[in-house]
Amino acid sequence: MKQTRQLIIQTIFGLIFILGLASHPAVAQTEPVCEVDVVVQADDWLSKIAQKFYGDPLAFPAIAEATNAKAAVDDSYATIENVDLIEPGWKLCLPSLADALTLLGQEGPAVAADTIPDTAVPITLLHLNDVYEISPVSGGAEGGLARVATLRKQLLAENPNTFTLLAGDLFSPSALGTARIDGERLAGQQTVGVMNAIGLDFMTFGNHEFDLNEAQFMQRLNESKFTWFSSNVFDVNGQSFPGVAKNHIFTVANNKGPEVRIGLFGLTIASNPQDYVTYTDPFAAAAEQVAELEGQVDILIALTHLPIESVA
After folding, report:
1. Residue 15's pLDDT is what?
2. Where in the chain do CATH 3.60.21.10 domains reside?
3. Beta strands at 299-305 and 17-19: parallel, antiparallel or unpaired
4. CATH architecture for segment(s) 117-311
5. What are the pLDDT digits (tens) for 112-158?
6. In angstroms, rounded to a whole number, what is the distance separating the alpha carbons of residues 272 and 284?
7. From CA 312, how far away is CA 308, in angstroms rounded?
8. In CATH, what is the architecture of 31-104?
């Protein structure tokens, strides 16, 4: 008999489409008390706000839950239907740290290992895309891949089943990528090297991977220590590029024995035509992957580099 498993999945940074699963912030049973109201700014996202006010980016679901509960009785507050999409001008309710932890059902920032059922398999997905530079911005106050590396280490310490995924645009564009070493442009060599050092696990193509000429592109693939996959981007003959599968399946377990099989496939917008690249329709490719992987995996994740309006 197939053993029933409970999946505990948290995603950090960005948008991943998980087929067969859907989650929305729950509405609290009683109206929460807002310790502070925050108006969303142009460069805000929920995990960033959670980091600023609670010192923990993983506390963002508490903000969504409290805000939705307030919106039910006060329409000046936003209704958050997708925790990855918030708009400038929205009014958010931030409960106290104690109330936030209560909403999260926790006594601390991380899910305590001894509270996880034996049949549960916790999975954390650290998701990035459009990585154009390796250095921080705002005078060093924000961004930078060193911060991503630190966050990844923290997440791995909390949950060894942490996987880092990148949904395209790593090779280009980059100011540093135009620098020449021995007469050759870096052309993404610096970003691949940093992602190798960070420990990126999985990646699919973005349209800007193909800003490079064919020789540069193939060299960057060859230098990558992470796993590539793409379901709708192929070479000029319609074949997968070397080392790039149409999908990837891996198994995750907890220390009590239960396992889950995770399938990944990737889709990319056909917006950068090159003579060494061919694209197929991403939605036809998605349907093909769902049919092919049905029965082989317990959870299927589409890592996409597509316009948000096409997948909303």
Report:
1. 47
2. 117-311
3. antiparallel
4. 4-Layer Sandwich (3.60)
5. 444 556 678 889 999 999 888 888 877 777 778 888 998 899 888 88
6. 19
7. 6
8. Roll (3.10)
